[in-house]
Amino acid sequence: VTGVQTCALPISYIQNMDDVEYKAGFNSFDEININFSNIDLIIFDVDFETFDKVFKNVKDIKEKYPNLNFIAISYEINPQFILKVKEQGIAQILLKPIISNILEASINKIKNIKQDNRNYTISVFSNKGACGKTSLATNLAYEISKLTNKKTAIVDLSFNFDDVSTALDIEAKYDFEHALIEIERADEKTILNIANRYKNSNLYIFSFKDNLAINKKISPSDIRKIIRSIKNIFKYTIIDTPSTIDETTVSILDNSTLILLLAMLNMSSIRNIQKCLELFRHIGFSKLKTKLI
Predict the structure, then answer these.
(1) Which of 56, 67, 205, 222 is the most buried (most CB within 10 A)?
(2) How far, in Å, CA of 95 to CA of 266, rounded?
(3) What would the DSSP string read from start to end of 181-201?
(4) With contact defined as beta carbons under 8 Å apart, do 207 and 134 qualify?
Protein backbone atom coordinates (compact mmCIF):
# COMPACT_ATOMS: atom_id res chain seq x y z
CA VAL A 1 0.00 0.00 0.00
CA THR A 2 1.35 3.45 -0.89
CA GLY A 3 -0.24 6.47 0.75
CA VAL A 4 -0.33 10.20 1.42
CA GLN A 5 -1.76 12.14 4.34
CA THR A 6 -3.41 15.53 4.74
CA CYS A 7 -3.49 15.47 8.53
CA ALA A 8 -1.30 15.73 11.61
CA LEU A 9 -0.36 12.05 11.82
CA PRO A 10 3.04 10.84 13.08
CA ILE A 11 4.92 9.58 10.01
CA SER A 12 6.58 6.88 12.10
CA TYR A 13 3.19 5.18 12.54
CA ILE A 14 3.11 4.46 8.80
CA GLN A 15 6.82 3.98 8.15
CA ASN A 16 7.00 1.16 10.70
CA MET A 17 4.31 -0.89 8.95
CA ASP A 18 5.21 -3.81 6.70
CA ASP A 19 4.44 -3.42 2.96
CA VAL A 20 3.35 0.19 3.41
CA GLU A 21 5.24 3.00 1.69
CA TYR A 22 4.74 6.58 2.83
CA LYS A 23 4.74 8.89 -0.20
CA ALA A 24 4.02 12.42 1.03
CA GLY A 25 2.29 14.59 3.61
CA PHE A 26 0.36 17.84 3.17
CA ASN A 27 -1.41 20.25 5.50
CA SER A 28 -4.52 20.35 3.29
CA PHE A 29 -5.93 19.08 -0.01
CA ASP A 30 -5.12 22.45 -1.57
CA GLU A 31 -1.39 21.71 -1.22
CA ILE A 32 -1.45 18.27 -2.87
CA ASN A 33 0.72 18.09 -5.98
CA ILE A 34 1.20 14.37 -6.53
CA ASN A 35 0.19 11.83 -9.18
CA PHE A 36 -2.52 9.70 -7.57
CA SER A 37 -2.16 6.88 -10.11
CA ASN A 38 0.58 5.34 -7.91
CA ILE A 39 -1.26 5.94 -4.62
CA ASP A 40 -3.49 3.42 -2.80
CA LEU A 41 -4.57 5.39 0.27
CA ILE A 42 -5.20 8.96 1.49
CA ILE A 43 -5.56 9.65 5.21
CA PHE A 44 -7.24 12.98 5.87
CA ASP A 45 -8.45 15.16 8.72
CA VAL A 46 -12.04 16.44 8.89
CA ASP A 47 -14.40 18.17 11.33
CA PHE A 48 -17.75 20.00 11.21
CA GLU A 49 -16.12 23.27 10.21
CA THR A 50 -14.12 21.89 7.27
CA PHE A 51 -16.56 19.16 6.22
CA ASP A 52 -17.98 20.67 3.01
CA LYS A 53 -14.62 21.82 1.64
CA VAL A 54 -12.83 18.58 2.49
CA PHE A 55 -15.45 16.34 0.94
CA LYS A 56 -15.64 18.42 -2.21
CA ASN A 57 -11.91 17.62 -2.67
CA VAL A 58 -12.47 13.96 -1.77
CA LYS A 59 -15.32 13.68 -4.30
CA ASP A 60 -13.20 15.25 -7.07
CA ILE A 61 -10.33 12.84 -6.39
CA LYS A 62 -12.62 9.78 -6.19
CA GLU A 63 -14.19 10.61 -9.55
CA LYS A 64 -10.77 10.64 -11.23
CA TYR A 65 -9.31 7.72 -9.24
CA PRO A 66 -12.18 5.38 -8.25
CA ASN A 67 -9.84 2.72 -6.85
CA LEU A 68 -8.30 5.07 -4.27
CA ASN A 69 -8.97 4.33 -0.60
CA PHE A 70 -9.57 6.89 2.13
CA ILE A 71 -9.35 6.91 5.93
CA ALA A 72 -10.82 9.92 7.78
CA ILE A 73 -9.58 10.97 11.21
CA SER A 74 -11.32 13.43 13.52
CA TYR A 75 -11.84 14.65 17.07
CA GLU A 76 -15.59 14.61 16.43
CA ILE A 77 -17.31 11.74 18.27
CA ASN A 78 -20.86 12.80 17.47
CA PRO A 79 -22.69 9.80 15.92
CA GLN A 80 -24.40 12.12 13.44
CA PHE A 81 -21.02 13.36 12.24
CA ILE A 82 -19.67 9.83 11.87
CA LEU A 83 -22.78 8.84 9.90
CA LYS A 84 -22.36 11.93 7.72
CA VAL A 85 -18.77 10.89 6.88
CA LYS A 86 -19.85 7.32 6.04
CA GLU A 87 -22.60 8.67 3.76
CA GLN A 88 -19.79 10.18 1.66
CA GLY A 89 -18.48 6.70 0.90
CA ILE A 90 -15.71 6.70 3.54
CA ALA A 91 -15.89 3.31 5.23
CA GLN A 92 -13.32 4.02 7.94
CA ILE A 93 -13.18 6.94 10.36
CA LEU A 94 -10.72 6.93 13.28
CA LEU A 95 -11.00 9.09 16.36
CA LYS A 96 -8.12 11.23 17.60
CA PRO A 97 -5.74 10.79 19.26
CA ILE A 98 -4.73 8.03 16.87
CA ILE A 99 -3.50 4.76 18.34
CA SER A 100 -0.92 3.17 16.05
CA ASN A 101 -2.32 -0.39 16.39
CA ILE A 102 -5.81 0.76 15.39
CA LEU A 103 -4.42 2.66 12.38
CA GLU A 104 -2.43 -0.40 11.33
CA ALA A 105 -5.55 -2.60 11.58
CA SER A 106 -7.48 -0.13 9.38
CA ILE A 107 -4.73 -0.10 6.74
CA ASN A 108 -4.51 -3.91 6.85
CA LYS A 109 -8.24 -4.09 6.04
CA ILE A 110 -7.58 -2.05 2.90
CA LYS A 111 -4.59 -4.23 2.01
CA ASN A 112 -6.67 -7.40 2.33
CA ILE A 113 -9.52 -6.00 0.22
CA LYS A 114 -7.06 -4.88 -2.47
CA GLN A 115 -5.38 -8.29 -2.52
CA ASP A 116 -8.72 -10.11 -2.82
CA ASN A 117 -9.99 -7.90 -5.64
CA ARG A 118 -6.79 -7.23 -7.55
CA ASN A 119 -5.81 -8.91 -10.77
CA TYR A 120 -2.06 -9.39 -10.62
CA THR A 121 0.30 -8.69 -13.50
CA ILE A 122 3.81 -10.00 -12.80
CA SER A 123 6.66 -9.15 -15.17
CA VAL A 124 9.84 -11.21 -15.13
CA PHE A 125 12.69 -8.94 -16.22
CA SER A 126 16.44 -8.92 -16.63
CA ASN A 127 18.53 -6.62 -18.79
CA LYS A 128 21.00 -9.47 -19.23
CA GLY A 129 20.27 -12.45 -21.49
CA ALA A 130 20.63 -16.16 -20.72
CA CYS A 131 19.71 -15.86 -17.05
CA GLY A 132 16.65 -18.13 -16.98
CA LYS A 133 14.04 -15.40 -17.44
CA THR A 134 11.72 -17.43 -19.67
CA SER A 135 12.12 -20.57 -17.54
CA LEU A 136 11.12 -18.65 -14.41
CA ALA A 137 8.16 -16.98 -16.15
CA THR A 138 6.74 -20.21 -17.61
CA ASN A 139 7.22 -22.27 -14.45
CA LEU A 140 5.81 -19.51 -12.25
CA ALA A 141 2.72 -19.20 -14.45
CA TYR A 142 2.12 -22.95 -14.49
CA GLU A 143 2.53 -23.33 -10.71
CA ILE A 144 0.21 -20.37 -10.00
CA SER A 145 -2.46 -21.90 -12.27
CA LYS A 146 -2.18 -25.21 -10.36
CA LEU A 147 -2.03 -23.77 -6.84
CA THR A 148 -4.85 -21.25 -7.26
CA ASN A 149 -7.00 -23.26 -9.69
CA LYS A 150 -7.67 -19.96 -11.48
CA LYS A 151 -7.19 -19.01 -15.12
CA THR A 152 -3.62 -17.77 -15.49
CA ALA A 153 -2.06 -16.12 -18.53
CA ILE A 154 1.53 -16.12 -19.62
CA VAL A 155 2.26 -13.42 -22.20
CA ASP A 156 5.39 -13.54 -24.36
CA LEU A 157 6.39 -9.93 -24.97
CA SER A 158 10.02 -10.85 -25.60
CA PHE A 159 9.57 -10.06 -29.28
CA ASN A 160 11.46 -11.73 -32.14
CA PHE A 161 12.54 -14.73 -30.07
CA ASP A 162 9.26 -16.60 -29.30
CA ASP A 163 10.90 -18.15 -26.23
CA VAL A 164 7.69 -19.06 -24.40
CA SER A 165 6.28 -20.96 -27.40
CA THR A 166 9.51 -22.94 -27.63
CA ALA A 167 9.61 -23.66 -23.89
CA LEU A 168 6.01 -24.92 -23.83
CA ASP A 169 6.14 -26.56 -27.26
CA ILE A 170 3.23 -24.69 -28.83
CA GLU A 171 2.79 -22.68 -32.02
CA ALA A 172 1.57 -19.07 -31.92
CA LYS A 173 -1.73 -18.41 -33.72
CA TYR A 174 -1.34 -14.70 -34.58
CA ASP A 175 1.31 -12.07 -35.06
CA PHE A 176 1.10 -9.14 -32.63
CA GLU A 177 -0.74 -6.80 -35.01
CA HIS A 178 -3.57 -9.25 -35.75
CA ALA A 179 -3.78 -10.30 -32.08
CA LEU A 180 -4.18 -6.65 -31.10
CA ILE A 181 -7.01 -6.18 -33.62
CA GLU A 182 -8.80 -9.24 -32.24
CA ILE A 183 -8.15 -8.44 -28.60
CA GLU A 184 -9.59 -4.93 -28.86
CA ARG A 185 -13.01 -6.52 -29.31
CA ALA A 186 -12.55 -7.18 -25.57
CA ASP A 187 -14.97 -10.09 -25.18
CA GLU A 188 -13.66 -13.05 -23.21
CA LYS A 189 -14.33 -15.67 -25.86
CA THR A 190 -12.30 -13.78 -28.49
CA ILE A 191 -9.39 -13.16 -26.13
CA LEU A 192 -9.25 -16.80 -25.02
CA ASN A 193 -9.29 -17.89 -28.68
CA ILE A 194 -6.07 -15.92 -29.29
CA ALA A 195 -4.28 -17.97 -26.63
CA ASN A 196 -3.15 -21.58 -26.60
CA ARG A 197 -4.49 -23.52 -23.62
CA TYR A 198 -1.73 -25.63 -22.09
CA LYS A 199 -2.69 -29.31 -21.84
CA ASN A 200 -6.27 -28.68 -20.61
CA SER A 201 -4.91 -26.81 -17.59
CA ASN A 202 -5.83 -23.31 -16.34
CA LEU A 203 -2.76 -21.89 -18.09
CA TYR A 204 -3.30 -19.86 -21.27
CA ILE A 205 -0.34 -18.89 -23.46
CA PHE A 206 -0.33 -15.62 -25.39
CA SER A 207 2.59 -15.74 -27.82
CA PHE A 208 2.97 -14.08 -31.20
CA LYS A 209 4.41 -15.18 -34.53
CA ASP A 210 7.76 -13.68 -35.46
CA ASN A 211 7.29 -10.68 -37.72
CA LEU A 212 10.18 -8.24 -37.51
CA ALA A 213 8.44 -5.53 -39.56
CA ILE A 214 5.37 -5.57 -37.29
CA ASN A 215 7.35 -5.88 -34.07
CA LYS A 216 9.35 -2.76 -34.92
CA LYS A 217 6.10 -0.75 -35.03
CA ILE A 218 4.79 -1.84 -31.60
CA SER A 219 4.14 1.22 -29.43
CA PRO A 220 3.75 1.69 -25.64
CA SER A 221 0.05 2.33 -26.32
CA ASP A 222 -0.26 -1.08 -28.00
CA ILE A 223 1.39 -2.71 -25.00
CA ARG A 224 -1.04 -1.02 -22.58
CA LYS A 225 -4.03 -2.16 -24.63
CA ILE A 226 -3.00 -5.79 -24.78
CA ILE A 227 -2.04 -6.03 -21.09
CA ARG A 228 -5.24 -4.27 -20.00
CA SER A 229 -7.44 -6.59 -22.09
CA ILE A 230 -5.76 -9.76 -20.85
CA LYS A 231 -5.61 -8.82 -17.16
CA ASN A 232 -9.33 -7.96 -17.17
CA ILE A 233 -10.02 -11.68 -17.70
CA PHE A 234 -7.22 -13.38 -15.78
CA LYS A 235 -6.58 -13.20 -12.04
CA TYR A 236 -2.86 -13.68 -12.72
CA THR A 237 -0.93 -12.55 -15.79
CA ILE A 238 2.78 -13.41 -16.05
CA ILE A 239 4.82 -11.53 -18.66
CA ASP A 240 8.11 -12.63 -20.18
CA THR A 241 9.71 -9.28 -21.01
CA PRO A 242 12.40 -8.19 -23.47
CA SER A 243 15.95 -7.91 -22.13
CA THR A 244 16.39 -4.42 -23.53
CA ILE A 245 15.20 -1.25 -21.81
CA ASP A 246 13.27 0.97 -24.19
CA GLU A 247 9.86 2.65 -24.28
CA THR A 248 8.10 -0.66 -24.93
CA THR A 249 9.77 -2.41 -21.99
CA VAL A 250 9.10 0.54 -19.66
CA SER A 251 5.42 0.41 -20.69
CA ILE A 252 5.29 -3.30 -19.81
CA LEU A 253 6.88 -2.71 -16.40
CA ASP A 254 4.75 0.36 -15.72
CA ASN A 255 1.58 -1.67 -16.31
CA SER A 256 2.72 -4.46 -13.97
CA THR A 257 1.69 -5.03 -10.37
CA LEU A 258 5.04 -6.63 -9.56
CA ILE A 259 8.45 -6.80 -11.24
CA LEU A 260 10.66 -9.83 -10.60
CA LEU A 261 14.18 -8.58 -11.35
CA LEU A 262 16.59 -11.44 -12.02
CA ALA A 263 20.21 -11.34 -10.89
CA MET A 264 23.20 -13.65 -11.31
CA LEU A 265 26.14 -14.08 -8.98
CA ASN A 266 28.71 -12.10 -10.95
CA MET A 267 29.90 -8.48 -10.98
CA SER A 268 28.46 -7.72 -14.41
CA SER A 269 24.98 -8.77 -13.31
CA ILE A 270 25.23 -6.84 -10.04
CA ARG A 271 26.20 -3.65 -11.91
CA ASN A 272 23.27 -4.15 -14.28
CA ILE A 273 20.91 -4.62 -11.33
CA GLN A 274 22.13 -1.36 -9.77
CA LYS A 275 21.48 0.46 -13.05
CA CYS A 276 18.00 -1.04 -13.30
CA LEU A 277 17.09 -0.03 -9.76
CA GLU A 278 18.35 3.51 -10.36
CA LEU A 279 16.26 3.70 -13.54
CA PHE A 280 13.17 2.39 -11.73
CA ARG A 281 13.60 5.07 -9.04
CA HIS A 282 14.00 7.73 -11.73
CA ILE A 283 10.81 6.55 -13.49
CA GLY A 284 8.95 6.67 -10.17
CA PHE A 285 8.29 2.97 -9.54
CA SER A 286 7.46 2.19 -5.92
CA LYS A 287 10.14 0.28 -4.01
CA LEU A 288 7.47 -2.29 -3.14
CA LYS A 289 6.93 -3.02 -6.84
CA THR A 290 10.31 -4.69 -7.47
CA LYS A 291 11.52 -7.98 -5.97
CA LEU A 292 15.06 -9.19 -6.57
CA ILE A 293 15.40 -12.85 -7.57
Answers:
(1) 205
(2) 53
(3) HHHTT--HHHHHHHSEE-TTS
(4) no
